[in-house]
Each structure stands twice: as structure tokens, then as C-alpha cells.
Give the backbone structure.
Amino acid sequence: MSKPQAQPIVRVEALHKHYHMGGEDLHVLRGVDLTVGRGEWLAVLGASGSGKSTLLHLIGGLDTPDEGNVYFDGQSVFELPLPKRDRFRNQHCGFVFQFYHLLPELNVLENTMLTGMIGTRPAALRERAAELLERVGLTERLKHKPKQLSGGERQRVAIARALINGPDLLLADEPTGNLDRKTGEHILDLFSELHAGGQTIIMVTHDAQIADRSNRELTLDGGRLAAVATTAE
Ligand SMILES: Nc1ncnc2c1ncn2[C@@H]1O[C@H](COP(=O)(O)OP(=O)(O)OP(=O)(O)O)[C@@H](O)[C@H]1O
Ligand SMILES: [Mg+2]
């Protein structure tokens, strides 16, 4: 069911992305339009190779589209010069990936502080990181290195790190894809809590059961987004 969205946080317009490989043109996104309201938890479903990660990276300004644009609170992301775009992304977007992407030589607290805003006093950053780690249930693990943690714990660190700058938008790419079902449920419980606290989330998954935890589901098919057909109850 769609409801009116007073103030969209993100607007994606006619997004196209091609990859060129060995003389072949792979037209992955073929005109994606999307509006995400503040406080929504959106799930994007789609088969492997349908372009879900590509779309997420474009929304977060990690990659550049061939056509179309992404607007954040009305600001055109791709019209910003690169250094400004990087700062903008760092301020507004937090990323969580399937394989955590933690730095092995840093401990839990240091990993969480890593992408903190330059210019923040180290003591304030440390305090904020410790608060977030408490929120994700890792207070007892601050000095652990990633290899001393379980998969679920690693993903919790990645979530704390993604939240360090208080992002308007949390982007999660298969956040439970590498976890067993029960551990994955705990991560989704954490997303539910964040969502209840007002966090806007875009989550990519190929798993319909995981997508069901969100409050809106779209599917990427043939390079475009469409509403997920609801199954009869
Ligand atoms: N850097 C790249 N260069 C060339 N082709 C790419 C590149 N990145 C992705 N692709 C291709 O684009 C298509 C979409 O990739 P993408 O990673 O966005 O899919 P996905 O929906 O996230 O898949 P999965 O569910 O397996 O993660 C795939 O066919 C992939 O091979
Ligand atoms: Mg992917």
C-alpha cells in the first residue's frame, strides 16, 4: 500500500547504468525511479545479477550513473564535485555490507570510530562509538579484533560504524546474507529498533522472508523497480 510521502529524503530519477566488459555493453539499470520517505524501511528484492548492489551504490554516491540523478533532500548528488560528494555521502549515508568490511588490524571501538567526521574531537568520537556499541550489544567486546568475533557480532560492529555520523539514510546490502537464520533475525531486530527510532533504511536482499520485515518492498527486474505482487493470505 502506498501512502503520501510529505518530504522525501531520497528521490531517484530515470537512473541508467551500463557496464562495459570485453566489448559487451551490459545495461543493468534501465530507468529506475524511486522516492523514499523519511523514516521508511524499504526492501529491494531481485534475482542475483539484477542490479541491486549497483542501485544501492548509486543511491549512496559510491558510483556514478550514466543517466539520471539522485536527490537527497532536493540536493542533486551527482552535480556536486567529487570531494564535496564524498563529504556529502559521509554525512548523510551509512553503509552496511554483506561481508562486514571491517579492518582486521583495528579493534571494535577503532573500527566504529573509523569513518567518524574529520574534525570531531577524538574523545567525543570515542564516546559516540562506545554509545553505539552499547546500543548494538557489544559493550563487552570493545577491544576485540574482528577475527575474535562471531559473524553476527561483526555485522553489529558494521552497523555501529554505519551510524557513527548519524546518517539520514542507512543503506544495507544483504546485511544478513552471510549469517545463519537466527543470527540474521537478531540483526533484523536491530534494524526494527532503529526504524522505530526514525531511521530511514534501504535494504537489499534476495530473500522474501527478510524483505517482509521492512515496511515497503520493491523488486528490481529487467533493470526497473516494480511493486512486489502481494500473495493472497
Ligand atoms: N564493475 C562491474 N563491471 C562489470 N560488470 C559488473 C560490475 N559490477 C556489476 N556488474 C554486473 O552487473 C550486473 C548487476 O550486478 P549487481 O552486483 O548490481 O547485482 P546484484 O543484484 O547485487 O546481484 P547479487 O544478488 O548476486 O549480489 C551483474 O550481471 C554483474 O555481473
Ligand atoms: Mg549484490
User: Anything to note?
Assistant: The chain has seven helices and ten strands. The first strand starts at residue 8 and ends at 21.
